Predict the 3D structure of the following.
Amino acid sequence: MKKTQNTVNYNKYGWFFISFAMLAFILFTLYPMIESLSLSFKVLRDGEYVFGGLTNIKRLLGDKIFHKTIGNTFLFLAVQAPLMLMLALVYATILNAPKLRFRTFYRTAIFVPCVTSLVAYSVLFKLMFANDGIINYLLVNLHLIEAPIFFLNDPFWARVVIILAMTWRWTGYNMMFYLAALQNIPAETYEAARVDGANAVQTLFKITIPQLKPIILLTTIMTTNGTLQLFDEPMNITGGGPAEMTTTMSQYIYNNAFVYAPNFGYSVSMSYVIVTLVALLAFVQFKVGKD
Amino acid sequence: MKKRLGLLLATGMLSFSMILAGCGNSSKESGANGAGGASGAAETNDEAATEETQKITVWAWDDNFNVAVMKTAAEYYKKLNPDANVEIEVISNSKEDIYKKLQTGLASGGKSLPDICLIEDYSIYQYLNSYSKYFYPLNDDVDYSQFSPYKVEVMTYNDKAYGIPFDAGVTGLFYRADYLEQAGFTAADLEDITWDRFIEIGKQVEEQTGVKMTVANGTNYSSLFRTMMQSAGAWYCDSNGELTITNNEVLKESLETIKKMRDAGIILECADDSTLAGAINDGTTASVINAAWRVSTIKAEPEQSGKWAVASTPRLNNANSVNASNTGGSSWYVLDNGQDKGAIVDFLKAVYAGDIDFYSDILVNQGAVGTYLPAQEGKAYQTEDEFFGGQKVFAEFASWLPEVPSVMYGKNVPESNTAVNTALFSYLQGDITVEEALTQAEDQLKNQIQ
């Protein structure tokens, strides 16, 4: 009897304590989600959003620019995410070596980009890669190129600049996860491996990576999620140009809501496409990560 | 025990609904006051209302330009009408933020909007088209024949005129007289020329001085082709709002002209507007084709005083094209939030549609070329500007103003800019022909606007 009393009390206080968080969740997450789902089926007519059936979905299927922005986003994901995660893993492994001098300095140096504001670093990259920016200046003075390259107006280079910028900004962030996880791998396992005569590569693939698997999965899902919502970098570095070569899904959604003739309904429909894609990819990654 | 849990949940629900109700109330109040935020809270006080000081909130985006102009207007109104119990509060924000707030306010049923908002000519139609009921028409109060016709055309929707025309985006060819003289050209050689002649001159200038003839935003040529298009009275759409892209001879010639200019190597391509402004000031370009408001950028480099001059905009070969055009420009719009508009209309009428001294003041101090026609007789327009070698720059702009062909911008200017610019990019790269570029742009737009 006494025990049940306690359980009920725990339950009561439990409900009380989470009620605030729940309230905020309902108000600021659940309610907007439901409201936006209904908005995604509406179209703007004479200043009112009215039910438009499948109008927005039909438009989604025929909207070539939206398809192009999906392609752009996935290109960034396919090129940048593996590159960055591998780099982060390499950094983490190097910085985890106990014999390395100035470890703290390197860790800080690699992590510092993560605390800069997205807009600030984007503007910095834009300046660096401008026609008269430092990169062109160096390349010309080293006689590697004859005339400055118009990086931001070149279909290929504009994408490269964005990928470089994102890698600079986010590698340290992912490295921190790997570093923390590496420190949880008991030193005894490495000792045992050494005694058994395993070399560095074997240690990496047989011990480090398998032990890091949950964290690699976590960073992959976070990166996928972040890249699919990519907005700040293309918006500030290239403005989506040249010729929509770097326009991402989020930027196109923003344009449809705030730059072009107002259309919140269509914008919301597109954002549900992102939600679906993120969920699908996360599901696949979980399946692959489990095996 | 179950009962107590139920009670707790009920209390939770109650507080939840109270929060909701609270939200509802506050937004209604701020909507009614048209101010929102802090000023809304101040005015909900009943005692404040009995003092009868009416607060007029204005949204604008450039502290050195339209914000300063509106503040000047408020001072002039106080002088003209010392008894009026109004307080004009100008809220400055970035243009993007203003549009975002305006768009959200309109979409949520006309809540949290200002009394007066500055909106660009290119954008106003998309708002009127969707939300005309939240805008207050002024054609019963204002004599629109006193304003430039092309500005009035832009703000007319369903036979009603909204807003007070503000600055003109009338264009001119600003050039470095010293560079052109070096290449053997005088002011007369640049007056009323065609773009083809402009390219010829440009080649000579680069040969003689090593300086690029002109400058443009290489990632976005829309300002240039819009200027070219409007000089012949053409646009992305006709006066019924139907797209005219593939069958638009003027647009075709505009894109071809840009390609010719680029192939001739006379354009210095910049990545954005701030680098473009930099190129103007550091002397790496011999000219820039832009609106009157560019004067402030040019004057930002005092060392170049006396070296600049201005000529009329080059024209296309198309028979309709004239040596005058427009780019940009904006106007003031009154938002209808159910309140009495008497004081607001009185303020706008007294200053913007009547006070010539005010227009002289903003011309001299902010470089704002107003579109109120009687103001152009003001003395300020006749000032000789030493920076431009003693040329009466604003008198020149005022003389081109009536020549600017009227076009209806329609509700899809930003989309059209992007679509045509994207197609132009492939055309400039040599991937597609100009016809294919126009078809591509039209296909893209047709899908986008429905």
